[in-house]
Amino acid sequence: MPSYTGINHLAMVTGDMDRTIRFWRDLLGMRLVAGLGGNGYRHYFFEISDRDMIAFFEWPDVEKIPEKDHGVPVKAPFAFDHIAFGVDGEDDLWDLKDRLEAAGFWVSEVIDHGFIHSTYTFDPNNIPIEFSAPVAGVDLRRQPKMLDRHPGRIALEGPEPQPGHWPSVERPTPDDQRIIFPGEGTVFAGGTDTKA
After folding, report:
1. What's the chain's average pLDDT?
2. Does residue 185 sit in helix, strand or coil?
3. Which of 8, 24, 57, 68 is in the most buried spot, having the most CB atoms within 10 Å?
């Protein structure tokens, strides 16, 4: 199995990169660590933690998504509900709530979910956001719990990946065929940018 390190980046979309930078960098305090741009778009990355980022494409004709409350079911094609950011503790959670309210953004009350305390808001693009602080003594990563009253058979197999349900790799890619094609971001590693 692969060894995951976190979410390298979530890729979102905005029609107003300047307002997006003001919110994510200046209000929430996430560093703007990379920016790419070309004909008709920009792609900027903000640091969440030492391993995780959130990125935004700016597309000039994109429209904001309709505001939809976190966790409320919809009947339509849909793939995304909200982003939940972890914070170190309660003080960080209250600091974010105070900052957002002072800036005129709607923010929910702090909600106790048993293993986390959370508050909810929306960014300027109507992207639903949750901020969550851990509850002392409750660590679902170390001690997973299944409290669904009617879990499916597959969920009852437990938290660990179950072997034998997907085909085995019969022919791994040989080292001499592991070719990495250049992308626009090669300029960050000292490559040349071929796009205007």
Report:
1. 90
2. helix
3. 24
Kindly list the distances between the CA atom of residue 74 and the CA atoms of 53, 60, 79, 84, 92, in Å, as whole numbers in the listed order. Answer: 28, 27, 11, 19, 31
How many other CB atoms are there within 10 angstroms of residue 188's CB atom? Answer: 12
- The number of domains in the chain is 2
Q: What are phi and psi of 41, to 5 degrees?
A: -160, 160
- C-alpha to C-alpha distance for 81 and 71, rounded to whole angstroms: 6
Residue 38's CATH number: 3.10.180.10
Long-range contacts of 94-97 (CB under 8 A, 24+ apart): 96/28, 96/131, 97/131
How many whole angstroms separate alpha carbon 119 and alpha carbon 105?
12
Residue 186 has pLDDT above 60, yes or no: yes
Domain residues for 44?
Answer: 1-60
Is there a single domain that holds both residue 43 and residue 96? no
Query: If pLDDT is split at 50, 70 and 90, which confidence band does 65 have?
Result: confident
The DSSP bridge partners found for residue 148 are: none
How far, CA to CA in Å, does 191 sit from each of 60, 74, 194? Answer: 28, 45, 9
57 residue type, one letter? F
